[in-house]
Amino acid sequence: MTDTATPETPRAARKAGRPARILRGLLRASAWTVAVLVLLMAIAFFGAPLPLGPLEDTASVIAMLVPWTTGLLLAFTAILAAAAVLARRRRRLATVAGIAGLAALGMIATPWAATARETDVNWSAYFAAAPAPQPDATDTYASIDGHDLKVDVYLPETAEPAPAVVYVHGGGWSGGSRSESAPWQQWLSDQGYAVFSIDYRLAPTPRWEDAVGDVKCALGWVRANASEYGADAGNVSIAGDSAGGHLSMMAAYTVGDPALAPSCAVDEAPVASVMSWFAPTDLASLETDSDMPDSARGYLTEFLGAGLAEEPSRYEAASPLTYARPGLPPTMIVQGGADRLVPLEQGEALAASLERAGVPVATLDLPWAHHGFTGQWGSWASQALRPAVVDFLAEHAH
């Protein structure tokens, strides 16, 4: 007796092939999702900002985050390339995947190529880990209205008194902390500077002048205690990013102004130099200049306690541009070419005023750099900034 195979029914064949069809469907859906996501990122990154209200700010935030996703974009590029090849029969998917893959490569390559034309940058540094920061000391430089204002100290290995740099953190005047830029403070210390990274009272405080007064208080404390930390009391510079850069300039440009006195009993003295990284300089025009007007308005209103229409004189008094005049300390102004929050015009206006007044000015406009780029240690803009900082401080803080 011979066995005969039972022919497979069409229903059984369809059932047997269902897992493969489900898998192919999931892969196609994943490819479409990645392609659409990449294209939306590319529109935000390369596209000109549009007056879309809150959506304008959202698109700008997406653009700001793109440089942080380079590793993810490289993975997306590989996925999209595979999808374009494997989906040849599905022409629409293959075309969209191919376009999205090129867009992903564009977001990776364009900032690199633009920066590499101006300075020496490399991919190994892009993915390198930031220095491991460890303050040598933490102290309290003042206690004001129940706030203990602290300072982290990073000391170089040198037997001679080191030039000092007081660092003021950013955060829209209402957030941030003295430790958020710790890798930069450690790096500055490694270059031979005694670095003092400070707290200040955050908005909303009773008066916007409080933050400026706290920075001046810290400067006086550093001078008074410099010998304890091996720093040179006669060679103190100040630096900051974003809101911290704004406060650094305000403190440096208003020495002796009774309306902006230190918030503690210290002597004031001019600083050796000031560095401002992606900081606003003209608060009255910031909302209009910014491609993130809702965010800018929110930060300004919380810091100054009123809108521009209500207190225009307050906005003028809180702007470093107002104080541009001869005799100010050498100033380094760093701006990102793609900064949607604090655009190039802010730095350019101050640089032009300082140059007319005969103040030494160093400007660094970094192509395709967004607001807060220093938070990404290996970013192309961060790589370009470090040698520029070394050169500026070597000229003005030694």
TrEMBL record:
Membrane among keywords: yes
Membrane spanning residue stretches: 25-48, 60-86, 93-114
Stored SUPFAM superfamilies: alpha/beta-Hydrolases
Ranges in coiled-coil conformation: none
Keywords from the named record: Hydrolase, Membrane, Transmembrane, Transmembrane helix
Keyword Plastid: no
Domain of life: Bacteria
Gene3D superfamilies xrefs: alpha/beta hydrolase (3.40.50.1820)
GO molecular function: hydrolase activity
Domain BD-FAE-like: start-end pairs: 152-354
PANTHER family, alphabetized: AB HYDROLASE SUPERFAMILY PROTEIN C4A8.06C, ALPHA_BETA HYDROLASE
Name of the molecule in the record: Alpha/beta hydrolase
Organism expressing this protein natively: Glycomyces niveus
